[in-house]
Amino acid sequence: MFGGCIMKFEKLSENKIKITLTSQDLKDKNIDFHSFMSNPLEKQDLFLDILEEAEEEIGFEFKDYPVRIEALAMANGEFIVTVTRVVPDSKNLHKKVSVKRKNTKIDSKYAIYKFASFDDYCNFVKYLKNHNLSLSYKVAKNILLYLYKEDYYIVFDNINLKYSNIAKFNSAIIEFAKFISNSSLFICKLLENGEIIMNNNAIKTGIKYFK
Questions:
Q1: Is 193 helix (H, G, I), strand (E, B) or coil?
Q2: What angle do CA 47, 28, 175 make, to 5 degrees?
Q3: How far apart are CA 195 and CA 46, in angstroms?
Q4: How far apart are CA 98 and CA 67, in angstroms?
Q5: Residues 83-109: pLDDT tens digits?
Q6: Is the pTM of this model over 0.70?
Q7: How far apart are CA 167 and CA 5, in angstroms?
């Protein structure tokens, strides 16, 4: 419990956690949506308080580490905050908080996400299968996987906004991939310079073959 707010903490790995907040959480902290997504000073103070709460709730220590934070506004009104603890090689550690703000447009026709490795893509489709999201291949008419400059990009073309679990799907994918763009121009770049890995619904294919 934080200032009357109820937040959900989930540990994704040893150095990464996910925090889910609602619009009511922001109201209880007297922070509106615009401030949350654009005001770096106010956000940083809020995040330091949230990180202290995460340390109490799930033992996520941050005081001696640099921390990278990404905030994403979801379609259902929730806010997903992903916190990554960066473990440097140097023994001279200084706490530094960097904040990235994202606001995906759910009315966009396209969406592109980047996986750091093919294993991340495999883990993503396994997650969908194990969490009753096997029908996520219906989230878009065309779902393609590209290899470009040693990274893997999944492209959603002609997104189906009526897909019933689109909010859960959006929440799931940001645990494994980074949102890149919803522009058709980036898709053209992938078409010209990338190598297509799967062109027949990359989610349906992945769920079928990667168990």
A1: helix
A2: 45
A3: 42
A4: 7
A5: 887 776 544 444 454 545 454 444 467
A6: no
A7: 22
C-alpha span between 44 and 40 (Å, rounded)? 6
Domain boundary among 102, 126, 141: 102
Is residue 2 one of the residues assigned to a domain?
no
Q: Are residues 18 and 88 in the same domain?
A: yes
Band (78; pLDDT cuts 50, 70, 90): confident
Classify residue 168: in a domain, yes or no. Answer: yes
Among 102, 132, 156, which residue terminates a domain?
A: 102
Looking up tokens 């109490």, which residue turns up? Answer: 56
pLDDT of residue 114 exceeding 90: yes
CA angle 133, 68, 93 (to 5 degrees): 140
- Helices 166-173, 118-130: crossing angle, 10 deg rounding: 140
Domain residues for the domain of 198 are 110-209
CA angle, residues 111, 115, 118, in degrees to nearest 5: 130
Cα angle vertex 71, ends 167, 50, to 5°?
110
205 sits in which H/E element? helix 202-209
What CA–CA distance (Å, rounded) separates 107 from 21?
A: 22
Residue 153 covered by a domain: yes
pLDDT for residue 41 = 37
Are the C-beta atoms of residues 143 and 130 closer than 8 Å to each other?
no
